[in-house]
Each structure stands twice: as structure tokens, then as C-alpha cells.
Design a protein that fits this description.
The chain is α/β, with parallel strands linked by helices. A 6-stranded parallel beta sheet has the order 1-4-3-2-5-6, with helices on both faces. A 3-stranded antiparallel beta sheet has the order 7-8-9. Helix 6 crosses helix 7 and helix 9 runs antiparallel to helix 10. It is globular. The protein starts with 6 loop residues before the first strand and ends with a strand. The structure holds pantoate.
Length: 292
Amino acid sequence: MATRVPHVETVAALREIVRGWRQRGETVALVPTMGALHGGHLELVELGHARADRVVVSVFVNPAQFAPHEDFDRYPRTLDSDLDKLATVACDLAWAPTVAEMYPAGAAAHATRVQPAGAALGLEADFRPHFFAGVATVCCKLFNQVQPDLAIFGEKDYQQLAVMRQMVRDLDMPLEILGAPTVREADGLAMSSRNRYLSADERRIAPALNAALQALAARLAAAGPGLTGTTADALAAETVREIAAAGFGKVDYVAVRDADTLAALGESRPAALRILAAAWLGKTRLIDNIAA
Ligand code: PAF
């Protein structure tokens, strides 16, 4: 039988293990996931190991961040193979609560929520209005349950990372949020648990999203220091057309933003830009973002 990482399913069991580590003076990193682990997640674990004595990976498909019409029911649940994969990296413990353990009254009836604004407005929120309250609420709970010194999030969900930084700053949560670069397939497609939904044809088209963002980054660079919001929007609109021409269905957005604040561009070019995009391939919604 394959070696598996130990896992716990109750807050009480989790706390007992973490308490033991703390009594020995050990530091703890948390990697929050929804499971269906891929190479990108495993790199987050290694990063956690480089920064802390112990690494906890949470595996929880969070109903609170899915709208009723979204893919909560079909989201892959692969705990056994996730535990096998975690045994190949420096993970000490998987925290895999049931929905009843996380939300005893049910996710919909859970009375206390974290409702972020600021970085949580626009972009993803325009298309998934419930999403960031669900993510912030579950991550607040995960942080309270594990009480890590740091939590690690992939840059693939760039806006989510910004919302996490904002939440710990605004609510004085005593942990560091660490962002890690997106891990990509050889053809540029960002690794994602949802890539497994893609048909062979869709998988062939999928890298065109990243290629279009790279082309936009080159155009933004060519626009130089005088780049304004109006020019950036026109270039982004051209990229929307390119993504559609490559075979994608609806393009939810391509946006050029201030990399730090995620604010739209005005009359002057910010120090660092981020290009963010979301588009549909069949029934699968892909997101990606790059620095520019
Ligand atoms: O990025 C994810 O997988 C989820 O949004 C997270 C952070 C684990 C919260 O459920």
C-alpha cells in the first residue's frame, strides 16, 4: 500500500497535533487547498517546508465559495490520491474536515461571514459575486483552526492572494501571507485542478490564453511610460478578440491593473502592472494572470 500523509478530520484532533508542535517551539505553515492536488500545490508545500518546521495542507471543497449553478457537485474529490501525493513532499499533516465539521449549521446557514471589499471588488467578483466572501470566511476559519505562522497561496489566483493579504492586514491576523509563482505546463497553461475537465480538443486550445496575455504584455511594454488606462483598455479589448479567435467561448474579462492595488489604470502608468483574465472553454472557466 502506498504511504500516505496522516490526516485529521476534526478541529479537536488538529489542535492536539498543532499544540504538540508548538510546545516544542516549532513553526507552522498552512497551504489551503480544495484538493485534486497538482504540481503547483506540491510546490507550495515545498515552499512552506523551506519557511517553517511543519507544513499543514488543508483539503476542503468549500461550498460557501460556489454559487448554486457552479461546479461544487462535480468538483473533483480525490482525498486518497491527494494523501499519496502529499507523502512525496514535505507535508506533515493533511487537514481534511467534513462540511459538517467546518459548518455545523450548514454552509448556507453559517451565521458569521467575512465580507471583503477593496481588492475583492471587480474582476472575479463581477462574475462570481459570492466567491470572495466564501473564500475569506473559510480562510479565516482555517487560520483560526491551524493558527499558522504563515499561509501560502499561488499567484494563479492573484486577486484571491490580494484579498488574503488585505484580510490579515485589516483584521490584524497574526500570520504572514506568502504568494508563490504560478506553476505552468510546458505549453504555458497554468496548472489548475479544473484543467482535468478539459476535453482533448479544449486542452489543445487552452494554452492560447496564456499566449494572448504574453502578447498583451509585449504591447504594454512597447507603449512605454506614457501608457494610460484608455490605451491599456483598447489593448485588452484586442486580446479579448484574440482569445475568442483561438477557440475560447465567452471571455469574462481581460484587465490591466496596478499590480499592488488591483486598481484600474488612470492617466499615469503604475510601477508594476498585472494582466488578469478569465475565459470559458466549453463548460470550464479558466483564469490566468501575468506580470507586465
Ligand atoms: O484557492 C483555493 O483552492 C481556494 O479558494 C481556497 C483558498 C483553498 C479556499 O477554499
